[in-house]
From TrEMBL:
The organism's place on the tree of life at top rank: Bacteria
GO cellular component terms listed in the entry, alphabetical order: cell envelope
Localization: Cell envelope
Organism encoding this protein: Mycobacterium kyorinense
Membrane in keyword set: yes
UniProt keyword annotations, A-Z: Cell membrane, Lipoprotein, Membrane, Palmitate, Signal
Main localization of the protein described in the UniProt heading: other
Protein name: Lipoprotein LprG
Family: Belongs to the LppX/LprAFG lipoprotein family.
SUPFAM superfamilies hit by this protein: Prokaryotic lipoproteins and lipoprotein localization factors
Segments for region (Disordered): 1-36
């Protein structure tokens, strides 16, 4: 995979300031949503815990960009006919290109037919929209995630906001937790959402606005 940084995110750990007063969660979500709306690119590490039948992508690591157009590239582990397969993928010009093990890239059609991961950066329907859609948010504590000092905020998000980020086809509000930088630009560092405490999707974000170049792959 091509990435300016592909290190795995560190596990969350309590900070020394855990007893300090926490910021207002609604205000923090608003600030982070505004920052994320302007986000041009990001590095994503995503994984599925438990069983989520609607989500064929079990793990994904890649770079996402929305300028000059939505695009992404990276590696993923997907389920094909009950078997897990490692692939390389490229999203370019709203089409998905996939290379199976030992094969070259092939055109798998419109990204909307599979999983449009680059859509996370859409300023109107992506992650920024999800964070502005929180219902009854609660600030739960401080944690260090991937070297970033964050505030953990939990609440529920509407089905529409969730489905525009990940293809879960849910019809109910979904429990969601986000970890947001406490200072600076209030970037989104981590997100976790799912139908239950044992079945969820976890996302780690880094390399905010680091330039990403995605080219259309040569086809096999």
């Amino acid at each position: 995979m091509s990435s300016s940084a592909s290190s795995s995110p560190s596990s969350s750990s309590p900070s020394k300031q855990a007893d300090d007063p926490l910021p207002d969660p609604a205000a923090l979500l608003k600030e982070s949503s505004t920052t994320t709306k302007d986000l041009k690119s990001v590095h994503l590490v995503q994984s599925v815990a438990g069983k989520i039948a609607e989500m064929p992508v079990k793990r994904l690591e890649g770079d996402l960009s929305r300028e000059p157009a939505p695009a992404a590239k990276g590696n993923a582990k997907i389920t094909i006919m009950a078997a897990e397969v490692e692939i390389a993928f490229v999203e370019f010009d709203r089409r998905l290109y996939v290379a199976l093990p030992g094969e070259g890239f092939k055109d798998y059609g419109p990204t909307s037919n599979v999983y449009d991961v680059a859509a996370m950066l859409d300023p109107n329907t992506g992650l920024a929209n999800m964070m502005s859609d929180f219902i009854d948010p609660k600030a739960e504590g401080r944690e260090t995630v991937g070297g970033q000092q964050t505030i953990r905020v939990s609440g529920k998000v509407t089905a529409d906001a969730v489905n525009k980020i990940v293809p879960l086809d849910t019809t109910k509000r979904m429990s969601t937790t986000v970890w947001i930088q406490e200072s600076g630009d209030h970037q989104l560092v981590q997100a976790m959402l799912g139908p239950s405490k044992d079945d969820y999707i976890e996302m780690f974000f880094s390399n905010w606005n680091v330039p990403v170049t995605v080219d259309k792959p040569a086809l096999a």
